[in-house]
């Protein structure tokens, strides 16, 4: 209520209100000054309002007093329940945790005024989840309430938490939330085999390294706490097997380390131990985290291929051994209970040339060809053994045959076979050191001896000095060797080996006499060099040869230019093809032979200009039928030729396609007129050929021929 001291109660004062909520939340009686709330107030929405009031004269509208400000504070009541803003909650705690282990802290918020009364004082309690968990009523911390909670028994828990204001008193407002608690796994359980013995059946033909069976130990733990390691306990048969862990299934995979043989041992028994990889020291007191089971493996008998007595056979044979000689044998057995017979044969892929044969029953190997160590020193092939009862079961073994050497080749002198001696050589001078080679396989300590033949040892020119170390020296026995007297000497050297039987060969060395300087350096070994002019240097010889080459080049160029000039002249003379006479060295094939010469030179220039059609290719147009004119006895020959000419011009398929048939009167435009006798009314005997002599030198031969016939004509009177 507002009141001014100037208000006498006669209605001359008017009260006004302004500020927060004036007219919307609060209103004032203009006459009495009473302030009223016109709607419900919510402290949580706006805790206080600041207003301004003033007394105004009704008549003059002027303020009677200065404007005054006042605050209206909203008093709180308990109209909001506590709320869990972060709920629902998810938490976890390790299994087997002790009582009071921390799980989670929850918090509820009350919108009421915490400074006024107990409207905002919250108390927490568990409505669902006891007796497993407890909560602090003031802090909201959740803890375990029971010891040794086992995840393997129960893993998930749902706890219902209540928050109540007014300190939990009657009439207070409450809110709830859910907490989902999961027990996490710890390694509190050892692995256990579901049975104490496992029986496995394994074929004896199982491959080494293959899996032959699986066993499994059960661990109720989860994740890495359930990872199991399997080991074979040393004992009976354990060294033939190995065991690994399948990471996906945690099973123990038993693998074969060595081959099995039913005939040798039929049953293997060993123990397998399963243990955890990740141990928790808090649970060591529970007991050992491992378990043991027995594995019994029964080997199944299978039909197996024969087995060779050795993994590889090595034999030796001398070269040139007669065909059919037995050099060794292989042996294979069937170890199965039935003990079938075995057959042997050579793998043809490894012995394509069939140098050896094998007895199918006994397994003896014999030569099938003559062997040559120098050609092939070792043979490597395979022998296959199969069971008679089951030929599909085979086994293979490698056989190596070394060919032993027989001393069949004589030693030979190694290169060079030719040497030289200086004209000024002195007696006893070594001009060449020689060695020997032997195609045979030389044994250790092989020695070669060198000597001259009996005939050569008597000559006074050269000798051989054997150094007893498989080398020898060619020595001179005199001086004054002369190239002009003898240029070449042939020295027969005999070489023997020390093997049995002794082999020897005679090797002829060529010794060339050369001109040398005083130091023994060879200057020339050719006899022709003796007769060369003295003082003519190498540079002078090169200069002479160079001059000769230049002269030859000049001559060749001159001849080529002359030929080119003649060719150009000939081409110029061919421009007028009507005055050109073409000579051929061979006889042609007649009128129909269009391939023997170039008929293009006989083309009629007039016809070429009139008809531009291509004659070098066959046209695609239809062939026109050839019109053959009816020739009468008195038909003019010129019309006939023109008709034939027109006929060929309009026929695109007329052969040949690369030439043009030209028809015209012979002698047309010539001063000699026609030579043909077609138009002559007289006989050959009435002809006078004396006029041929007047036509010039071109017709001289023709004039002589007809002049001779006239002179020898017996019917003509001279």
TrEMBL record:
Main localization (coarse): membrane
Membrane topology of this protein: Single-pass type I membrane protein
SUPFAM superfamilies referenced in this protein's UniProt entry, alphabetically: Cadherin-like
Residue intervals of the Cadherin domain: 4-84, 85-193, 194-308, 309-413, 413-531
UniProt cross-references to SMART domains, sorted A to Z: CA
An annotated Gene Ontology molecular function: beta-catenin binding
UniProt record, GO biological process: adherens junction organization; calcium-dependent cell-cell adhesion via plasma membrane cell adhesion molecules; cell migration; cell morphogenesis; cell-cell adhesion mediated by cadherin; cell-cell junction assembly; homophilic cell adhesion via plasma membrane adhesion molecules
Transmembrane portions of the chain: 530-561
Keyword set, alphabetical order: Calcium, Cell adhesion, Cell membrane, Cleavage on pair of basic residues, Glycoprotein, Membrane, Metal-binding, Phosphoprotein, Repeat, Signal, Transmembrane, Transmembrane helix
Superkingdom of origin organism: Eukaryota
Pfam families: CADH_Y-type_LIR, Cadherin
Cell compartments where the protein resides: Cell membrane
InterPro entries per record: Cadherin, Cadherin-like_dom, Cadherin-like_sf, Cadherin_CS, Cadherin_Y-type_LIR, Catenin-bd_sf
GO CC, alphabetical: adherens junction; catenin complex
Summary of the function given for this chain in its UniProt record: Cadherins are calcium-dependent cell adhesion proteins. They preferentially interact with themselves in a homophilic manner in connecting cells; cadherins may thus contribute to the sorting of heterogeneous cell types.
Protein name: Cadherin-12
Organism of this sequence: Centropus bengalensis (lesser coucal)
Lineage of the species this protein comes from: Eukaryota, Metazoa, Chordata, Craniata, Vertebrata
């Amino acid at each position: 209520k507002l009141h001014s001291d100037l208000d006498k109660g006669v209605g001359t004062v008017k009260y006004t209100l302004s500020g927060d909520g004036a007219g919307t939340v609060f209103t004032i009686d203009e006459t009495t000054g009473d302030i009223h709330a016109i709607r419900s107030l919510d402290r949580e929405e706006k805790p206080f309002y600041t207003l301004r009031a003033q007394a105004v004269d009704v008549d003059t509208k002027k303020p009677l007093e200065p404007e005054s400000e006042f605050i209206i504070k909203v008093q709180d009541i308990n109209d909001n329940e506590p709320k869990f803003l972060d709920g629902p909650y998810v938490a976890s705690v390790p299994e087997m945790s002790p009582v009071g282990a921390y799980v989670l802290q929850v918090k509820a918020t009350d919108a009421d005024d915490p400074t006024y009364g107990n409207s905002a004082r919250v108390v927490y309690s568990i409505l669902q989840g006891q007796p497993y968990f407890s909560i602090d009523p003031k802090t909201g911390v959740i803890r375990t309430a029971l010891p040794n909670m086992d995840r393997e028994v129960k893993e998930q828990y749902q706890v219902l938490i209540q928050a109540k204001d007014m300190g939990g008193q009657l009439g207070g407002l409450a809110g709830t939330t859910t907490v989902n608690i999961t027990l996490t796994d710890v390694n509190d359980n050892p692995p256990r085999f579901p049975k104490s013995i496992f029986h496995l059946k394994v074929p004896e033909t199982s491959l080494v390294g293959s899996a032959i069976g699986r066993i499994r130990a059960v661990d109720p733990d989860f994740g890495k706490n359930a990872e199991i390691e399997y080991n074979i306990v040393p004992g009976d048969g354990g060294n033939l097997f190995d065991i690994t862990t399948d990471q996906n299934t945690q099973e123990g995979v038993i693998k074969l380390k060595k081959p099995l043989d039913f005939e040798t041992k039929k049953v293997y028994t060993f123990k397998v131990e399963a243990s955890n990889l990740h141990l928790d020291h808090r649970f060591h007191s529970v007991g050992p985290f491992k378990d043991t089971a027995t594995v019994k493996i029964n080997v199944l008998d299978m039909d197996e291929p024969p087995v060779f007595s050795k993994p590889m056979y090595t034999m030796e044979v001398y070269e040139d051994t007669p065909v059919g000689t037995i050099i060794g044998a292989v042996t294979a057995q069937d170890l199965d209970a039935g003990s079938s017979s075995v057959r042997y044969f050579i793998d043809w892929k490894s012995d394509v040339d069939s140098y050896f044969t094998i007895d199918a029953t006994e397994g003896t190997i014999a030569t099938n060809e003559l062997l040559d160590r120098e050609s092939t020193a070792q043979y490597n092939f395979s022998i296959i053994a199969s069971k008679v009862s089951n030929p599909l079961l085979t086994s293979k073994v490698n056989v190596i045959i070394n060919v032993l050497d027989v001393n069949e080749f004589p030693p030979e002198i190694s290169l060079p076979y030719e040497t030289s001696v200086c004209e000024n050589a002195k007696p006893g001078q070594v001009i060449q050191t020689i060695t020997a080679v032997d195609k045979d396989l030389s044994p250790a300590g092989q020695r070669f001896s060198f000597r001259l033949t009996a005939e050569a040892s008597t000559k006074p020119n050269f000798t051989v000095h054997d150094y007893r170390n498989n080398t020898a020296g060619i020595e001179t026995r005199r001086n004054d060797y002369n190239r002009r007297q003898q240029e070449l000497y042939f020295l027969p050297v005999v070489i023997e080996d020390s093997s049995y039987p002794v082999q020897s060969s005679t090797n002829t060395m060529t010794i060339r006499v050369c001109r040398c300087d005083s130091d023994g350096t060879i200057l020339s070994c050719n006899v022709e060099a003796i007769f060369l002019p003295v003082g003519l240097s190498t540079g002078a010889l090169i200069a002479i040869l160079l001059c000769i080459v230049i002269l030859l080049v000049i001559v060749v160029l001159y001849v080529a230019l002359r030929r080119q000039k003649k060719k150009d002249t000939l081409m110029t003379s061919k421009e007028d093809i009507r005055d050109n006479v073409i000579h051929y060295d061979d006889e042609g094939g007649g009128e129909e032979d269009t391939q023997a010469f170039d008929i293009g030179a006989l083309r009629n220039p007039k016809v070429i200009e009139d008809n531009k059609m291509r004659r070098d290719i066959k046209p695609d147009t239809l062939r026109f039928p050839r019109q053959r004119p009816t020739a009468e006895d008195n038909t003019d020959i010129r019309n006939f030729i023109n008709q034939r000419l027109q006929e060929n011009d309009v026929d695109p398929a007329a052969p040949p396609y690369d030439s043009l048939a030209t028809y015209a009167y012979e002698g047309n435009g010539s001063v000699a007129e026609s030579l043909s006798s077609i138009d002559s009314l007289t006989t050959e005997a009435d002809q006078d050929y004396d006029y041929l002599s007047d036509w010039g030198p071109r017709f001289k031969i023709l004039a002589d021929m007809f002049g001779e016939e006239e002179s020898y004509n017996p019917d003509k009177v001279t």
